[in-house]
Specification:
heterodimer; A: about 260 residues; mainly alpha; Cytochrome Bc1 Complex, Chain D, domain 2; two-stranded antiparallel sheet; 2 strands; about 55% helix; extended; B: about 525 residues; Cytochrome Bc1 Complex, Chain C; two-stranded antiparallel ribbon; globular; Di-haem_cyt_TM (chain B); Cytochrome bc1 complex cytochrome b subunit (chain B); membrane (chain B); transmembrane (chain B)
C-alpha cells in the first residue's frame, strides 16, 4: 500500500516530466509576472528606502556631473528637485538622458539603463520633492475615445508634431519628434512634464481622461497603417510632390525613351 | 482608307471597309484622316512630354467624373458616421464627410480618389517638363509664339484646377491652404478685404466657398482647359512639329513616321501606359490622407502643412520674406510681406509668358524656325532658362523649409537664409555657369567637327614623332553639329529720319548681351581648310 502510494508519488515514472513541467510553469509564470510587472511598474516599490538608496547611487554615478550631487542643479544642468518621477522616467526611459551632447535639444539614443534602474532613479528624484507621477496603466493603455483624442491632438499637438504624428521643425534646430513609436506611458509623461521644448499640458488644461484619449488616437495611428498604401512618411504634399517628380515622371520619361528608341 | 469603287469584288468587302465607306459617305472624313494620318511626327522622347500631360489630364477627367457621382460640395454641418473610427461622431462639413465616404465606404473610391490626385500632380509636372523642353530647344520661336502663350495659360489653369481641387474636401490641410490664399487676397491694399468677402461670401471661411470652388473645379476650369488644349493641338498640326537638326531635315519639312498607322498605335498604347503607371501609383501610395487631417477648423495648423507641389513656389516666396515688412502707415496696414511676393511672382510669370516676344524683338528675327535648337547653341537663352529654373527651384524648396530642417538636421533659420541667398544670388551664378558651359560645349563641338574624335591610337611617324590619329566625323554627325544659326549683335543704325532712337539703343544693348559671346558654326571654308591641314 505504502509502496504503491509512493510509486504513485515521487517515484512515479512520470514524476520527472511532471516536475519539469511544474518547474517550467513556475519559471515561465515568474518571467511573465516580472515582465508585465516592469510595464505596470509593480515590482519596484516607490516608497522603499532600498529603492531610493539604489536610485541615489545610480544618480550620483550617472547624473550628478551635470545635475549636482544632490540634484540641486549646476551650470550645465537644471535642478531636478520637484520634477517628479514622470519626468525622469520619460527622459531616461526614452534614452534622452544621460544626454548625448549639449545642443538645441536632447537627442534620443539607445536607453542606457534597465527598466528597474530607470524606476529607481525616478523614485529617488521623486523623493526629493513632489512632482508629476508615473501614470497608472489604465490611463496609457489606449482604451479611450480615439475620435475625441484625434480632435484634441489636432488642436493641441499637431502644430508641432504634425497631424499624423510624423514630427515637425521648430526654431533654431529644435524639433518635435515623430510619435510613430512612442509608448503610451512616455506620451503621457511628456504631456505632464513638458520635456525639451514641449509645453506642459497639466490636468486642468487636458484632463487625465482626455490625455488617455490622445494616447488612444496615437495608438490607433500606430497600429493601423494607412488604408491608401505606403504613407511616404506621412509628410504631406512635399513627399507626394517629390515622389511624383522622381518616381512618377521618372518612370514615364523612361518609358518615352523606350517608346522612341530606334529598333535595332 | 480604300475608297476604290466596289465594282471589282462587291461581296468580298470586309466589315472594316464597309464601315469606313459608310462613315465616309456620310461625313467625308476620309480627306481629313488622310491629311492628318500622313502628318509626320518627328521621333524623340522629349516630344512625348506634352502627350504625357494630355494623357494625365484624360485620366484626371475620367477619375474626376467618377468622384462627382459621390462628392457633395456642401458646407452644411453633419456628424460623421462612416467607417473611420477616429472621426466617428466628429462634426464636419458634408463635403468632408462625403470625401471620407468616398475613401472608406464606396467601393474603389479611395483608389479613384488617389488616382485623381496623383494624376493631377503628374499632369502639372508633365506640363512643367514639357515647357522646359520647349524653352530650352527654342521651340517657342516664330510661328509658335502664340502656342507658347496658350500652353503657359494652360499651365496656370492647371495650377488653378489643382488648387481648387485641393480645397474641396474641406479638411484641415485644404482649409489652411485657403486661409493662406485669403490672407494673400486681404494683403492687397484697398480692394483686398472686399475681394476676400466676395470670394468667401463674407468672413472666412463662411459657408459658400466649397460650392463655389466646386463649380470652378468641375465646370469652368475644365471647359477652359479642354478648349485651350484643343486649340493647342490644332496649332501643333498647323505649325507642324519641330525637329532636331539632321540630314534631310529642313525648315520646310518634318521628317518622321506618319501618324497613321504606327505612330497613332504607339501614342494610343502610350496612353494606356500612362494610365497604368498612375493606377499602379494610386494603388500603392497614399496621397492626401484627409482622415489624418480631420475636418477644417480655423484654429489648428499642422506641422508640415504645404500646398501641392505646383503651388509650392508661391508658399515658398511667402516663407522667404524676412520679418517686419508689415507696418502701419496713414492708419492703414501695409502688408509688404505679401505684396512683394505677389509682385515678384506676377512679374516672373508675365516674363515667362512673353519671353518669345522679348527674344524675337532682341534678335530682330522675323523668320520661321522649325528646327529645334540644341540648348548649347543658344547659350544666352539657355543661361536665362537656368537662372529662371534656379529662381523657381529656390522658391519651391522654400515651401519645404521645415521638412528640409528636420530631415537634414539643420536649423529652420539656416535653411531659410540659404534659400534666400539661392533665390537672389543663385540665378546669377546659374546664369554665368550655364553660359560658360554652353560655350565650352560649342567649342568642343567645333573641335570635333574640325579635327574629328580622338581615337586613342598613337602612331609613330618615320621621323620619330608621335601623333594621335583623329577619327573624322561622318557627314550625318557633322551636319548635326554645324547646322545651327548664329546671331551677331545688332548694329545701331539711324532710322529713316537719320535718328538713333532710345528703343534702338536698348535693343542693341540687349542684343549685345545676348550675342556678344558666341561661337560661330564651322563654315565650309574652315572645314576644308581644317581637312587640308590634316591630310
Amino acid at each position: 500500500m505504502t509502496r504503491s502510494k509512493r510509486r504513485a508519488g515521487r517515484r512515479h515514472p512520470l514524476a520527472t516530466a511532471a516536475l519539469l513541467a511544474l518547474g517550467l510553469v513556475f519559471t515561465g509564470g515568474a518571467y511573465a509576472a516580472l515582465s508585465t510587472g516592469t510595464v505596470a511598474q509593480a515590482e519596484v516599490d516607490p516608497n522603499s528606502q532600498q529603492t531610493i538608496e539604489e536610485g541615489k547611487k545610480l544618480f550620483q554615478a550617472n547624473c550628478a556631473t551635470c545635475h549636482g550631487l544632490e540634484a540641486q542643479g549646476t551650470d550645465n544642468g537644471p535642478s531636478l528637485i520637484g520634477v517628479g518621477a514622470a519626468s525622469v522616467d520619460f527622459q531616461v526611459g526614452t534614452g534622452r538622458m544621460p544626454m548625448q551632447m549639449q545642443g538645441p535639444q536632447a537627442q534620443q539614443k539607445p536607453v542606457q539603463f534597465t527598466d528597474e534602474q530607470v524606476k529607481q532613479l525616478a523614485y529617488y528624484v521623486a523623493s526629493l520633492g513632489p512632482g508629476p507621477e508615473i501614470p497608472s496603466d489604465h490611463l496609457v493603455n489606449g482604451g479611450g475615445d480615439a475620435a475625441n483624442g484625434a480632435e484634441l491632438f489636432r488642436i493641441n499637438c499637431a502644430m508641432c508634431h504634425n497631424v499624423a504624428g510624423a514630427g515637425g521643425a521648430l526654431t533654431e534646430g529644435k524639433f518635435a519628434p515623430p510619435l510613430t513609436d512612442v509608448s503610451g506611458v512616455h506620451i503621457y509623461e511628456a504631456m505632464v512634464t513638458g520635456p525639451q521644448n514641449m509645453p506642459v499640458f497639466n490636468d486642468l488644461n487636458i484632463s487625465p481622461e482626455d490625455k488617455r484619449d490622445v494616447i488612444t488616437y496615437l495608438k490607433y495611428v500606430q497600429d493601423n497603417r494607412s488604408p491608401g498604401g505606403f504613407e511616404l512618411g506621412s509628410l504631406g504634399p512635399v513627399a507626394e510632390g517629390l515622389f511624383i517628380w522622381i518616381f512618377g515622371l521618372g518612370a514615364i520619361v523612361a518609358i518615352t525613351v523606350w517608346i522612341t528608341a530606334k529598333s535595332n | 482608307m480604300s475608297t476604290a469603287p466596289s465594282a471589282t469584288a462587291p461581296q468580298k468587302r470586309s466589315f472594316t471597309a464597309a464601315a469606313s465607306v459608310y462613315v465616309n459617305e456620310r461625313t467625308s472624313v476620309a480627306g481629313f484622316v488622310k491629311e492628318l494620318g500622313r502628318k509626320a511626327f518627328p521621333d524623340h522622347w522629349s516630344f512625348l512630354l506634352g502627350e504625357v500631360a494630355l494623357f494625365a489630364f484624360v485620366v484626371v477627367l475620367i477619375s474626376g467624373t467618377f468622384l462627382t457621382f459621390f462628392f457633395q460640395a456642401s458646407m452644411a454641418e453633419v456628424h460623421y458616421d462612416g467607417s473611420y473610427v477616429p472621426l466617428k461622431g466628429v462634426e464636419m462639413s458634408v463635403a468632408m464627410a462625403s470625401t471620407l465616404d468616398i475613401s472608406f465606404d464606396i467601393r474603389g473610391g479611395l483608389f479613384v480618389r488617389q488616382m485623381h490626385h496623383w494624376g493631377a500632380l503628374l499632369f502639372v509636372a508633365a506640363i512643367g517638363l514639357h515647357m522646359l523642353r520647349i524653352f530650352f530647344t527654342g521651340a517657342f520661336r516664330k510661328p509658335r509664339e502664340l502656342n507658347w502663350v496658350i500652353g503657359f495659360i494652360l499651365f496656370i489653369l492647371a495650377m488653378a484646377e489643382g488648387f481648387t481641387g485641393y480645397s474641396l474636401p474641406d479638411d484641415l490641410l485644404s482649409g489652411n491652404g485657403l486661409r493662406i490664399i485669403d490672407g494673400m487676397v486681404k494683403g492687397i491694399p484697398l480692394i483686398g478685404t472686399w475681394t476676400s468677402f466676395l470670394l468667401f461670401g463674407g468672413e472666412f471661411p463662411g459657408t459658400q466657398i466649397v460650392g463655389r470652388l466646386y463649380t470652378l473645379h468641375i465646370l469652368l476650369l475644365p471647359a477652359l482647359v479642354v478648349a485651350l488644349v484643343a486649340l493647342h493641338l490644332v496649332f501643333v498640326v498647323v505649325h507642324k512639329h519641330t525637329q532636331y537638326a539632321g540630314p534631310g531635315k529642313t525648315q520646310q519639312n518634318a521628317v518622321g513616321p506618319p501618324i497613321l498607322p504606327i505612330y497613332a498605335a504607339k501614342a494610343g498604347g502610350f496612353f494606356f501606359i500612362v494610365f497604368g503607371v498612375l493606377a499602379l501609383i494610386a494603388s500603392m501610395f497614399t496621397i492626401n490622407p484627409i482622415w489624418n487631417y480631420g475636418p477644417y477648423d480655423p484654429s489648428p495648423v499642422s506641422a508640415g502643412t504645404q500646398p501641392d507641389w505646383y503651388i509650392g513656389f508661391a508658399d515658398g516666396a511667402l516663407r522667404l520674406i524676412p520679418p517686419g515688412w508689415e507696418f502701419v502707415w496713414l492708419d492703414r496696414t501695409w502688408s509688404f510681406n505679401i505684396l512683394v511676393p505677389l509682385i515678384v511672382l506676377g512679374g516672373f510669370i508675365v516674363t515667362v509668358l512673353i519671353y518669345p516676344f522679348i527674344e524675337a524683338w532682341v534678335k530682330g528675327d522675323k523668320r520661321e524656325h522649325h528646327i529645334a535648337d540644341r540648348p548649347r547653341n543658344a547659350p544666352t537663352r539657355t543661361a536665362i532658362g537656368a537662372a529662371g529654373v534656379t529662381f523657381y527651384a529656390g522658391l519651391w524648396a522654400a515651401a519645404s523649409s521645415d521638412i528640409l530642417a528636420t530631415h537634414f538636421w539643420l536649423t529652420m533659420e539656416g535653411v531659410i537664409h540659404a534659400l534666400q541667398a539661392t533665390v537672389i544670388i543663385g540665378p546669377f551664378i546659374a546664369y554665368f555657369i550655364t553660359k560658360r558651359v554652353c560655350i565650352a560645349l560649342q567649342k568642343k563641338d567645333r573641335e570635333i567637327v574640325l579635327h574629328g574624335y580622338e581615337s586613342g591610337r598613337i602612331v609613330k611617324l618615320p621621323g620619330g614623332e608621335f601623333i594621335e590619329v583623329h577619327q573624322p566625323l561622318d557627314e550625318y554627325e557633322r551636319w548635326r553639329l554645324v547646322s545651327f544659326e548664329s546671331y551677331e549683335p545688332l548694329m545701331i543704325r539711324p532710322n529713316a529720319r537719320g535718328k538713333i532712337t532710345v528703343g534702338q539703343r536698348i535693343r542693341a544693348s540687349f542684343s549685345r548681351w545676348f550675342f556678344e559671346d558666341r561661337i560661330a558654326p564651322v563654315s565650309k571654308g574652315e572645314l576644308e581648310a581644317g581637312h587640308d591641314g590634316h591630310h
